[in-house]
Amino acid sequence: MPKFVPFEYEKLAHDEQLRRAQSFFELCKRRRSIREFSSDPIPPEVLELIVQTASSAPSGANKQPWKFIVVTDSKLKKEIREAAEAEEKKNYEERMPQEWLDDLEPFGTDWRKEFLGVAPALIAVFAVNYEKDFDRIRKNYYVKESVGIAVGFLLAAIHNAGLVALTHTPSPMDFLQRILERPDNEKPFLLIPVGYPKDGTKVPDINKKSLDDIRIWR
User: Fold this and answer.
1) 38, 85, 123, 151: least CB-packed within 10 angstroms?
2) Confidence band (pLDDT; 50, 70, 90) for 28?
Protein backbone atom coordinates (compact mmCIF):
# COMPACT_ATOMS: atom_id res chain seq x y z
CA MET A 1 0.00 0.00 0.00
CA PRO A 2 1.33 3.49 -0.82
CA LYS A 3 2.14 5.68 2.16
CA PHE A 4 0.43 9.06 2.43
CA VAL A 5 0.98 11.91 4.89
CA PRO A 6 -1.23 14.91 5.68
CA PHE A 7 -0.93 17.83 3.25
CA GLU A 8 -0.03 21.07 4.99
CA TYR A 9 -2.14 23.82 3.49
CA GLU A 10 -3.33 27.26 4.52
CA LYS A 11 -6.16 28.73 2.48
CA LEU A 12 -5.50 32.40 1.82
CA ALA A 13 -8.05 35.16 1.79
CA HIS A 14 -8.80 36.55 -1.66
CA ASP A 15 -6.99 39.84 -0.94
CA GLU A 16 -3.86 37.98 0.16
CA GLN A 17 -4.00 35.71 -2.90
CA LEU A 18 -4.19 38.75 -5.14
CA ARG A 19 -1.42 40.55 -3.28
CA ARG A 20 0.93 37.57 -3.56
CA ALA A 21 0.09 36.94 -7.20
CA GLN A 22 0.69 40.60 -8.06
CA SER A 23 3.92 40.75 -6.06
CA PHE A 24 5.31 37.62 -7.71
CA PHE A 25 4.35 38.89 -11.16
CA GLU A 26 6.06 42.23 -10.50
CA LEU A 27 9.19 40.35 -9.40
CA CYS A 28 9.25 37.99 -12.37
CA LYS A 29 8.57 40.59 -15.04
CA ARG A 30 11.81 42.37 -14.05
CA ARG A 31 13.83 39.25 -14.89
CA ARG A 32 16.08 39.66 -17.93
CA SER A 33 18.62 37.46 -19.64
CA ILE A 34 22.06 38.96 -19.07
CA ARG A 35 25.26 38.51 -21.10
CA GLU A 36 27.50 40.98 -19.23
CA PHE A 37 28.53 39.68 -15.82
CA SER A 38 30.60 40.93 -12.93
CA SER A 39 33.14 38.44 -11.59
CA ASP A 40 32.01 39.06 -7.99
CA PRO A 41 31.61 35.68 -6.25
CA ILE A 42 28.27 34.29 -5.09
CA PRO A 43 28.05 32.93 -1.52
CA PRO A 44 28.07 29.12 -1.80
CA GLU A 45 25.09 28.80 0.52
CA VAL A 46 23.02 30.93 -1.88
CA LEU A 47 23.90 28.64 -4.78
CA GLU A 48 22.99 25.61 -2.65
CA LEU A 49 19.57 27.04 -1.83
CA ILE A 50 18.92 27.92 -5.47
CA VAL A 51 19.60 24.32 -6.51
CA GLN A 52 17.48 23.02 -3.62
CA THR A 53 14.61 25.15 -4.85
CA ALA A 54 14.96 23.69 -8.34
CA SER A 55 14.92 20.20 -6.86
CA SER A 56 11.51 20.87 -5.30
CA ALA A 57 9.90 20.84 -8.76
CA PRO A 58 7.39 18.11 -9.69
CA SER A 59 8.58 15.26 -11.89
CA GLY A 60 7.20 12.15 -13.60
CA ALA A 61 6.66 9.43 -10.97
CA ASN A 62 8.78 11.61 -8.64
CA LYS A 63 11.91 10.28 -10.35
CA GLN A 64 13.59 13.71 -10.15
CA PRO A 65 15.60 13.05 -13.34
CA TRP A 66 18.06 15.90 -13.06
CA LYS A 67 21.57 16.81 -11.97
CA PHE A 68 22.83 20.34 -11.40
CA ILE A 69 26.60 20.69 -11.82
CA VAL A 70 27.75 23.97 -10.23
CA VAL A 71 31.04 25.09 -11.74
CA THR A 72 33.06 27.83 -10.03
CA ASP A 73 36.60 26.70 -10.87
CA SER A 74 38.18 29.22 -13.26
CA LYS A 75 40.14 26.63 -15.26
CA LEU A 76 37.03 24.52 -15.78
CA LYS A 77 34.99 27.56 -16.81
CA LYS A 78 37.71 28.47 -19.33
CA GLU A 79 37.61 24.96 -20.80
CA ILE A 80 33.83 25.10 -21.07
CA ARG A 81 33.96 28.51 -22.73
CA GLU A 82 36.49 27.39 -25.33
CA ALA A 83 34.49 24.28 -26.19
CA ALA A 84 31.21 26.22 -26.36
CA GLU A 85 32.73 28.88 -28.60
CA ALA A 86 34.08 26.24 -30.98
CA GLU A 87 30.55 24.87 -31.46
CA GLU A 88 28.96 28.31 -31.64
CA LYS A 89 31.44 29.48 -34.27
CA LYS A 90 30.35 26.59 -36.49
CA ASN A 91 26.71 27.44 -35.78
CA TYR A 92 27.02 31.09 -36.76
CA GLU A 93 29.26 30.48 -39.77
CA GLU A 94 27.93 27.18 -41.13
CA ARG A 95 24.90 25.62 -39.44
CA MET A 96 22.36 28.37 -38.82
CA PRO A 97 20.02 29.33 -41.70
CA GLN A 98 19.77 33.03 -42.54
CA GLU A 99 16.31 33.31 -40.97
CA TRP A 100 17.73 32.22 -37.61
CA LEU A 101 20.60 34.69 -37.89
CA ASP A 102 18.12 37.44 -38.74
CA ASP A 103 16.05 36.61 -35.65
CA LEU A 104 19.16 36.83 -33.47
CA GLU A 105 20.32 40.16 -34.89
CA PRO A 106 18.30 42.36 -32.45
CA PHE A 107 20.16 40.73 -29.55
CA GLY A 108 23.62 41.53 -30.87
CA THR A 109 24.96 38.05 -30.25
CA ASP A 110 27.73 36.16 -32.03
CA TRP A 111 29.82 33.06 -31.39
CA ARG A 112 31.94 34.73 -28.71
CA LYS A 113 30.77 33.79 -25.20
CA GLU A 114 32.97 35.76 -22.80
CA PHE A 115 30.35 35.49 -20.08
CA LEU A 116 31.13 31.78 -19.63
CA GLY A 117 34.53 32.72 -18.26
CA VAL A 118 33.47 35.84 -16.35
CA ALA A 119 30.31 34.76 -14.51
CA PRO A 120 31.22 33.50 -11.02
CA ALA A 121 29.20 30.30 -11.44
CA LEU A 122 27.97 28.12 -14.27
CA ILE A 123 25.14 25.71 -13.58
CA ALA A 124 25.13 22.86 -16.08
CA VAL A 125 21.76 21.12 -16.01
CA PHE A 126 21.74 17.46 -17.02
CA ALA A 127 18.74 15.27 -17.80
CA VAL A 128 19.02 11.79 -16.30
CA ASN A 129 17.34 9.42 -18.75
CA TYR A 130 17.63 6.36 -16.55
CA GLU A 131 19.15 5.24 -13.25
CA LYS A 132 21.72 2.49 -12.87
CA ASP A 133 21.16 0.16 -9.92
CA PHE A 134 24.13 -2.18 -10.20
CA ASP A 135 23.29 -4.20 -13.35
CA ARG A 136 19.67 -3.07 -13.42
CA ILE A 137 18.43 -0.06 -15.37
CA ARG A 138 15.46 1.88 -13.99
CA LYS A 139 13.68 4.08 -16.50
CA ASN A 140 12.78 7.69 -15.79
CA TYR A 141 9.55 9.17 -17.15
CA TYR A 142 8.75 12.50 -18.83
CA VAL A 143 12.39 13.45 -18.47
CA LYS A 144 12.46 16.55 -20.70
CA GLU A 145 9.21 17.87 -19.27
CA SER A 146 10.38 17.32 -15.69
CA VAL A 147 13.78 18.92 -16.22
CA GLY A 148 12.18 21.85 -18.04
CA ILE A 149 9.91 22.52 -15.06
CA ALA A 150 12.87 22.29 -12.66
CA VAL A 151 14.79 24.82 -14.76
CA GLY A 152 11.82 27.19 -14.44
CA PHE A 153 12.03 26.86 -10.67
CA LEU A 154 15.80 27.40 -10.88
CA LEU A 155 15.50 30.61 -12.90
CA ALA A 156 12.84 31.99 -10.55
CA ALA A 157 15.05 31.17 -7.54
CA ILE A 158 18.06 32.87 -9.16
CA HIS A 159 16.05 36.02 -9.84
CA ASN A 160 14.47 35.97 -6.38
CA ALA A 161 17.96 35.88 -4.82
CA GLY A 162 18.92 39.10 -6.59
CA LEU A 163 21.11 37.38 -9.16
CA VAL A 164 21.02 37.35 -12.95
CA ALA A 165 21.39 34.51 -15.42
CA LEU A 166 21.32 33.46 -19.05
CA THR A 167 19.78 30.32 -20.53
CA HIS A 168 22.59 29.28 -22.83
CA THR A 169 22.18 26.38 -25.25
CA PRO A 170 25.31 25.82 -27.32
CA SER A 171 24.45 23.05 -29.75
CA PRO A 172 25.56 20.34 -29.69
CA MET A 173 26.41 20.22 -25.98
CA ASP A 174 28.23 16.89 -25.83
CA PHE A 175 31.37 18.71 -24.71
CA LEU A 176 29.74 19.33 -21.32
CA GLN A 177 29.39 15.61 -20.73
CA ARG A 178 33.07 15.12 -21.52
CA ILE A 179 34.46 18.09 -19.60
CA LEU A 180 32.29 17.51 -16.52
CA GLU A 181 32.85 13.73 -16.67
CA ARG A 182 29.19 12.76 -16.51
CA PRO A 183 28.01 9.17 -17.11
CA ASP A 184 26.21 7.94 -20.24
CA ASN A 185 22.77 8.06 -18.62
CA GLU A 186 23.04 11.85 -18.19
CA LYS A 187 22.66 14.24 -21.12
CA PRO A 188 23.35 18.01 -21.06
CA PHE A 189 20.13 20.03 -21.10
CA LEU A 190 21.13 23.65 -20.45
CA LEU A 191 24.10 25.78 -19.40
CA ILE A 192 23.27 28.71 -17.13
CA PRO A 193 25.84 31.36 -16.17
CA VAL A 194 24.80 32.95 -12.88
CA GLY A 195 26.04 36.05 -11.09
CA TYR A 196 25.68 39.82 -10.84
CA PRO A 197 25.33 42.23 -13.76
CA LYS A 198 28.41 44.19 -14.77
CA ASP A 199 28.17 47.92 -14.03
CA GLY A 200 26.52 49.68 -16.95
CA THR A 201 24.95 46.53 -18.37
CA LYS A 202 22.34 47.14 -21.04
CA VAL A 203 19.71 44.73 -22.35
CA PRO A 204 17.79 44.61 -25.65
CA ASP A 205 14.69 46.80 -25.84
CA ILE A 206 12.11 44.04 -26.23
CA ASN A 207 8.58 43.36 -25.00
CA LYS A 208 6.64 40.28 -23.94
CA LYS A 209 3.45 39.28 -25.70
CA SER A 210 0.33 40.79 -24.20
CA LEU A 211 -1.98 38.77 -21.98
CA ASP A 212 -4.60 38.78 -24.75
CA ASP A 213 -2.06 37.17 -27.08
CA ILE A 214 -1.32 34.23 -24.77
CA ARG A 215 -4.45 33.69 -22.64
CA ILE A 216 -7.67 32.16 -23.89
CA TRP A 217 -10.76 31.83 -21.68
CA ARG A 218 -13.18 29.02 -22.60
Assistant:
1) 38
2) very high
